[in-house]
Design brief:
eight-stranded mixed beta sheet, alpha/beta, 34% helix, 20% strand, Rossmann fold
Amino acid sequence: MKAKVYFTKNITPEALVKIYDALGIELKGKVAVKLSTGEPGGHHFLSPKLIEKLVKKVDGTIVECCTAYHGRRDAAASHWQTFKDHGFMAIAPCDLMDEHGEIKIPVKNGKHLKGYDLVGKNIQNYDSMLVLSHFKGHAMGGFGGALKNISIGVASRNGKAWIHSVGRTSEPDLCWSMTEDQDGFLESMAEASEAVHSHFAPNIAYVNVANNLSVDCDCDANPHAPEMADIGIFASLDPVALDQCCYDAVMNSTDPGKAALIERMLSRHAIHTVEEAARLGVGTREYELVEI
């Protein structure tokens, strides 16, 4: 069966709430809202003013984990400062999920992560997750959307190293010498996404905001300026269909500014994360687009 992906061209707080309502899901219990807090210096991360109404609607706690690369989000104190400086603490409770450790959650039928994903310990405190992603390019993954947000994004600092190294080390300082297997990295992200999706399913929902479409991720402190115009907001209960739809929207756009982002996605074989996540049963690549 095709998965439903909802779409609106409007990128407003009200449109975010409307597209979430279209999903027809009521997230139960304590709700984690997973987003990227954005590396200081960058400015393309999702604006607190844009997301505030939706976060409050679900009574959510904004959650993140520390980075594996060295920067201003690789340690708890500086990452908490980023939460504050970027305006997230002003709109909702926040939680740095790996501040006090990590846990293993199972990976099913994976080829690389040897049976487990390493995620922030505080994932145990939540009953549901709203995955609120900024869809854009990425230096290593080609693009970042829902699947990246629940794989690299929910992974602890050590878990990020585990994914980047294709299951060879959980030491952040060692993993960067183990990045030669690009498809293995993309497959490892898919395996980690399966683990997190399965951990919460069916109490998990996904929203991708396709604006500020830089070739660079929000983890970049000095991202390239976007060359194509904003597209809109997409939402689904299926992260595979959602990322496939956003990928297709860029590929099929009539905007000539899409060339740089397409080159970034193709040169990194970005769609392979979606392919592998589909193979692992996270979702389907077949979708019905419903404009609201």
